[in-house]
Design a protein that fits this description.
Structural class: alpha/beta
Strand order of the largest sheet: 5-4-1-2-3-6
Helix content: 40-55%
Radius of gyration: 15 Å
Distance between the termini: 52 Å
Length: about 160
């Protein structure tokens, strides 16, 4: 069975929380609060990379979701940002390699419909009918996006 991942509340919609949900035999969701998104957006602007805010944040959330759920099957990620799948794919792989020992998740982009359990779960969390499994903090997402380098010798 293929695991499906869907998003509710796009990253660029900073007036809404973003929910990323995975569903197959596992049902798991995480939420990125709108205030954290606004702070991230500001940080990306400060780094002169405002366009990458969406793709890198989305990729980091997918990586966190995969690491927390460790799905055994193939994964279908809903095509949220058409034409940017290559950027997102490489970023997800990069973040997973930084965070996890298991690095060989098989994922593809495709259509996850409105009847998908992942879509239904994301919508239920968005409408507060269900509680998310994890709320992502600013610190957690920053550790994925810009990990500290340990190459400095301590004094």
């Amino acid at each position: 069975m293929t695991a499906e991942i869907d998003q509710s509340g796009k990253i660029e919609q900073t007036n809404l929380d973003t929910i990323i949900a995975l569903s197959n035999n596992i049902h798991y969701s995480l939420i990125l609060p709108k205030r954290v998104k606004r702070t991230l957006q500001s940080l990306f602007r400060d780094k002169a990379r405002p366009r990458m805010f969406i793709y890198q944040t989305f990729s980091a959330l997918i990586a966190i979701l995969l690491i927390n759920t460790k799905p055994k099957s193939k994964i279908c990620i809903d095509t949220e940002y058409q034409g940017h799948d290559d950027i997102i794919r490489s970023q997800i792989s990069h973040y997973i390699s930084l965070l996890a020992k298991k690095k060989n998740y098989v994922f593809e982009f495709g259509y996850v419909g409105k009847t998908s359990p992942a879509h239904i779960l994301a919508a239920q969390v968005a409408y507060k009918k269900k509680k998310s499994n994890k709320t992502i903090t600013l610190r957690e997402i920053l550790e994925v996006l810009w990990p500290k380098k340990n190459d400095r010798a301590s004094a």
